[in-house]
Design a protein that fits this description.
The chain has 214 residues and is of the alpha/beta class. It has a single domain, classed as 3-Layer(aba) Sandwich (Rossmann fold). The chain is 36% helix and 20% strand. Strands 5-2-1-6-7-11-10 form a seven-stranded mixed sheet, with helices on both faces. A two-stranded antiparallel ribbon has the order 3-4. α1 links the parallel β1 and β2.
Length: 214
């Protein structure tokens, strides 16, 4: 089972590393990080580099695709004929599942996979997703199993999506084993993980911090 995770400049690290930690342990699975060129790709703030071991051309037939998000998706979506978008168009017809985390769903939408379909993304990118033809929803994970498409909301939701994907690819026991393996048992010290739980003070601080990345 070939699982492909594409990398691009200014992606968000957890979007791909979270699902990777779950999916890499599935029986028979191999996970390959891809990019336009083999080599290092820097994440959104530039502090972390991830290594692409293959190009898109090297993997024309993945079983599973997991597209991460991050501010770098803006450039991917804006570029006509972008290699990642064209690769998704080419491989999706034969994947078992094509998935996204966070603003990775805007890349799927750009590839024409989400036209008039409910989909999710980071809460700050709902308008971007809508402009690309999808129907944004606040659900944490959105499935279109007949079309073999799954989208996950912002960053940490990629772990939830990967666990559901594990169930679909193997069975529920495998998914539960993966959850236990990574000890995914969230007990956050604060209950501020969604916009409707936030406050003006927290939102103001978030905008301030986000400006330093953008």
């Amino acid at each position: 089972m070939k699982i492909a995770i594409p990398l691009f400049h200014q992606l968000t690290a957890l979007d791909c590393i979270g699902p990777y930690e779950v999916l890499q342990r599935l029986p028979g699975a191999t996970v390959t990080f891809l990019a336009e060129e083999v080599g290092e790709v820097r994440t959104d703030n530039g502090f972390l580099g991830l290594m692409a071991d293959a190009t898109y051309a090297d993997m024309p037939d993945p079983d599973v695709v997991v597209v991460p998000g991050g501010i770098g998706t803006r450039a991917v979506v804006a570029e006509e004929g972008n290699q990642l978008v064209e690769w998704i168009k080419a491989v999706h017809p034969n994947t078992r599942f094509t998935t996204s985390v966070c603003t990775g769903s805007t890349v799927l939408a750009k590839a024409g996979l989400l036209d008039d379909k409910a989909a999710t993304t980071h809460w700050s990118a709902f308008d971007d997703l809508k402009k690309l033809g999808a129907v944004p929803t606040q659900d944490r994970v959105v499935e279109h199993l007949d079309d073999r498409i799954i989208t996950a909301a912002g960053v940490s939701s990629g772990i939830d999506m990967a666990l559901r994907l594990s169930e679909l690819l193997v069975d529920d026991v495998a998914a539960k084993a993966m959850q236990l393996m990574v000890e995914y048992d969230p007990q956050p010290p604060f209950d501020f993980g969604s916009v409707d739980k936030s406050t003006e003070e927290v939102m103001t601080r978030l905008i301030e911090y986000a400006a330093n990345v953008n």
